[in-house]
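haha ok so turns out i had the wrong file open the whole time. this is the CORRECT one, sorry everyone. sequence first:
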Amino acid sequence: MYTVHEIANGLTELLSERKFVEAYQQFFAEDAESIDPLNAEQSPLKGLENLVAREKDFLSRTDIHKITVSQPLVASRYFTLSLHMDFTIAGQGKMQVEELCVYRVKDGKIVSQQFFIG
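then structure:
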């Protein structure tokens, strides 16, 4: 079981290394949910299997040019990261996204993530 600080630091490291699927597999709970304003259904995506599948689909269509991840800010069971990504999605062109990522931890795993995109 991980502490909030271990999860925050580990997730920051994996994201910086572009190991997105590994981050889900290592630090997220089986029943984790993701609230993402870019989700077409505009409802939370639930379940680790679904989060990993969405990530693999995104990565299969995306060429990431640069990613910058801030140091985590931890408060109790929550932590936040600022993430900036420069990438190209097949058929959609080049994009830059800057977002604030907020995570909630319970029983040594991330149970919720929410993205706020600027």
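Residues 52 and 75 are 26 Å apart (CA to CA).
again sry for the mixup
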